[in-house]
Amino acid sequence: MMIKRIAAVLLVVACIVASVGCEKGDMLQTYYDYDVFEYVTLGQYTDLTLEVRDPAPTEKEIQEVIDSFLDANSVITPTGKTTVSDGDFVKLTYDGYYLGVKRDGLSGENYEFQIGSLEFIEEFEDSAIGKRKGEAYTIEIIYPDDFRNQDLRGQKVRYMIKVEDFYTKEFPELTDELVYEKLGYNSVENFKTYITERLTNTNIANAENNFTYYVWEMVLDNATIKSLPQDRMDFYEEQSLAYIKELWQKTFPSSTFDIFVEIMTNKTYDEFMEEIKNQCEDVVKDELVLLAIARTEGIVLEWNDYKSYARNYLEQYNCVSIHDLEQNVAREELCLTIVGDIIHAKIAETVTVVTKPN
Asked: What angle do CA 342, 348, 349 make, to 5 degrees?
C-alpha cells in the first residue's frame, strides 16, 4: 500500500462516488484522470536483467556464525578498568527515542559488546570512548540512507546511554565435543554443514522477498520524471499529516502544531516537513510510473475486476466484505494497489535473473 492512513474525507468521497455508479468504465481513469505523460516518460520496464548474489554463503559468513556461537559460550570476567578505550568489552544500558517515543527495539540493559566490533552503528560505539564507568550521556544519531534496518534509514534517534562495567572475555575452542554438548551435532563439520544449509535457504528467501522491490527500483530508475503534479503532492501531504494532526488535537491541543511535531519527532518543524515532502515525492513518482505503464499496456480496471481482486485483500485487513475493506482503505488507493500488483506480475514474467559470484 502506498499510503497507510487515508484521510476520512477521501472515504466519504469514495462512498459518494460508489453510490452514483462508478461501477461502469475504467475505475483507474475515474480516480486518476490527469495526463500522466505530461509528467513522466517511461524507460525500459520489461525484459530487465536482475543480478542476484549466489545464495551459497561465503567462508566469512560461515565464520561469523561460528564466532557468534563461540561468543555465546564465552566466559566473562569483570576488570578494574574505569575509562572506555577502543577494543574494550563493555556493558552499556541505553534507551533509544525515535519520533519522540522510547522504542523497545532500540533499548538494552547491561548489554555486552566490544567497542569497534560495529555490532552497533559506528557513531554509537565511538561515543562511548573516553567515558568513565558509571557515566551517563546523550547522543543523537542520523542513520544513513543505506542502513541495514530500512525503518531507520534517514531517521534521527536520540540515545540515553550509561557505561555500566568493563569485562574480559575468554572464548572456547571449537571442537567436536563443544558442538555436541551445546548443539547436539556429532562434529564440527556437521555443524558447518548445518550453517551452510541455513544461510543458503535464508539467502534464497531474501532474494525472493526482495525481487519485486529491486525490479521496481530499476523501472523507476529507467523512467524520466519531468515534473510532479502539485495537486497530487498536496493530496498525499494532507494524508500524511492527517494522523499526526489528529493526535495533536487529542493529546496537546494547547500547544502549537510545530511545537508538538518537535516533541513527537525529535526534529524541527522544517526538518519534519521536508521529510514528509520527500516521502510524498517518492509516492507520487510511484503513482506516475504505475499509471503510465497501465495506460501504455491498455490495463483497465472495471467494477467486476475490482471486486474480484479486492477480495484478495480481505484476510490481510481482517475484513469480511469489500464494504468493510473500504472502511480501512479508500477505494481510490485500492484501485492503484490492484493495478500495481497486476503490473508487477506482468513485469516479473519478463525479468531475467543472473546469479553473480560472491
From this structure: 95
Cell of 116: 569497534
Task: Give the whole-angstrom CA distance, residue 65 versus residue 295.
Answer: 49
- The separation between CA 311 and the C-alpha centre of its own chain, rounded to angstroms, equals 26
Q: Which residues contact 151 (CB under 8 A, 6 or more apart)?
A: none
pLDDT band, very low/low/confident/very high, at 358 (cuts 50, 70, 90): confident
Q: What is the C-alpha separation between 106 and 158, in angstroms, rounded?
A: 10
Q: Rounded to an integer, what distance in angstroms lies between the CA atom of residue 48 and that of residue 42?
A: 14
**Continuous H helices in the chain:** 8-19, 27-31, 59-72, 122-126, 176-183, 188-222, 230-251, 257-265, 269-297, 303-310, 322-328, 331-348
Nearest Cα to Cα of residue 239 among 279, 206, 199:
279
**All cell numbers assigned to 262:** 518537535
Span between the terminal Cα atoms of the chain, in Å: 33
Are 344 and 210 in contact by the 8 Å Cβ rule? The answer is no
| Distance between CA atoms of residues 326 and 14, nearest Å | 9
Helix (H/G/I), strand (E/B), else coil: 300: coil
pLDDT tens readout for residues 75-127: 988 888 899 999 999 999 999 987 777 877 899 999 988 999 888 999 999 99
User: What global pTM score does this model have?
Assistant: 0.72
Could you tell me the sign of the dihedral formed by the alpha carbons of 240, 246, 251, 256, in that order? positive
**What's the confidence (pLDDT) of residue 17?**
36
What is the C-alpha separation between 217 and 196, in angstroms, rounded? 30
Nearest in space to 27 (alpha carbons), one of 281, 308, 224: 308
DSSP structural state of residue 98: E
Rounded distance, CA 196 to CA 56, Å?
7
User: Can you tell me whether residue 164 is helix, strand or coil?
Assistant: strand
Cα separation values, 192 from 46, 74, 195, 293, 343, Å: 41, 19, 5, 47, 42
Name the one residue in this structure whose C-alpha cell is 514474467. Answer: 349
Reported as a single tens digit per residue, the pLDDT across 129-152 is: 999 999 999 999 999 988 888 778
